[in-house]
Specification:
Layout (H helix, E strand, L loop, with lengths): L9 E3 L2 E3 L3 E3 L8 H9 L4 E3 L16 E4 L3 E4 L12 H9 L4 E5 L4 H12 L5 E5 L10 H4 L2 H14 L4 E5 L6 H10 L4 E4 L3 E3 L2 E2 L4 E2 L6 E4 L4 H14 L4 E4 L5 H10 L3 E4 L1 H6 L3 H15 L11 H9 L1
Parallel strand pairs: 3-4, 3-16, 4-7, 7-8, 8-9, 9-10, 10-15, 15-16
Antiparallel strand pairs: 1-2, 5-6, 6-14, 11-14, 12-13
Helix pairs in contact: 1-2, 3-5, 5-6, 6-7, 7-8, 8-10
Length: 313
């Protein structure tokens, strides 16, 4: 792996990672070869695209609007081949040596539990529950905005699957930290925060939304302050590990998340813009920046901004 050094390894609960940079769900995870490619490029782990009970074609085009400097708007509609077809892709990634986290989505606790058990049987290292997609009717944010639903879904999956369960938290709510607390009560080994922000773009010439679905999810540099705030608030309330997501384009972005309380980060939009070579760059730059900032290892940076904030507050 290019640029990897021992002091970049980190533990996220029971999950051991060779470095804190994970391929985010929904980016580059369509096939086993693409997952393996991200791993071979230097990712510390890879999260699959979100997989459901049955195949979904997703929404019609256009599904993506890219903004050169600050992010990307998308409404894909959770396209996937279904849980019966996808395990062969996971096997390809696992044969490459990748640490694979399986992402699943469902409409209720029973469906999540069934999918979690099936995904666990593929040999993935952990499960990520998509409780936060902002634009798929009947899934994601629609079931993940109520703490009672979050707790019930996590508890059902924990009972059904003998693997660490990571609950992916939505920012499209008044209290992301409350959702993280509910996930912790349900037995989650970790939470990941955040998913995309609900957003819209309109083509003024056509007088209609740019995306065929209308509403989409905003990712990239523009949402980093929102992701950081969510991680900060969650860290103050829960004891389980946090995986930070949202606008990680550089090593310093990752360090901000670490200092806010994350133990690892997921990288998505940067991969879409730069390709999987971004992982090698991020690993090398993180190694250098930690040394410049006086940290001997990743673990030493986690949560340090909270102590400084209390001291100056």
């Amino acid at each position: 792996m290019p640029g990897a050094v021992a002091d970049l390894s980190v533990r996220c609960g029971p999950l051991a990672l060779r470095n804190p940079f994970l391929l985010a769900s929904g980016i580059w995870g369509e096939s086993g070869d693409s997952l393996a490619g991200a791993w071979n490029a230097g990712a510390g782990g890879v999260v699959t695209k979100s997989i459901g009970s049955v195949p979904r074609p997703g929404y019609p085009n256009p599904t993506i609007e890219a903004y050169e400097r600050w992010g990307m708007l998308n409404a894909m509609g959770l396209p996937n081949p279904g849980i019966d077809e996808y395990p062969k892709e996971i096997e390809i990634a696992r044969r490459a040596g990748a640490t694979v986290i399986g992402s699943v989505f469902g409409g209720d606790a029973e469906e999540f539990a069934r999918l979690g058990a099936r995904m666990a049987s593929t040999g993935v290292a952990a499960l990520e529950l998509n409780l936060s997609c902002p634009h798929a009717e009947g899934f994601g944010t629609e079931v993940g905005s109520d703490p009672r639903n979050v707790e019930a879904i996590v508890r059902a999956v924990v009972r059904a699957a003998p693997l660490p369960v990571i609950a992916k938290i939505t920012p499209n709510t008044a209290d992301p930290a409350g959702l993280a607390l509910a996930a912790e009560r349900g037995g989650a080994a970790a939470v990941s925060a955040i998913n995309t922000l609900r957003a819209l773009a309109i083509d003024v010439r056509l007088r209609r939304p740019v995306l065929a679905h209308g509403l989409g999810g905003l990712s990239g540099a523009a949402i980093k302050p929102v992701g950081l705030a969510s991680v900060w608030q969650i860290y103050e309330k829960v004891s389980i590990p946090i995986i930070g997501i949202g606008g990680i384009m550089s090593a310093d972005d990752a360090i901000e998340y670490l200092m806010a309380g994350a133990r690892a980060v997921e990288v998505g939009t940067a991969v879409a813009f730069e390709g999987i070579g971004v992982f090698g760059r991020l690993v090398r730059d993180l190694d250098r920046r930690l040394d410049e900032l006086g940290f001997a290892r990743v673990e030493d940076a986690i949560g340090v901004a909270h102590a400084a904030g209390r001291a100056t507050g």
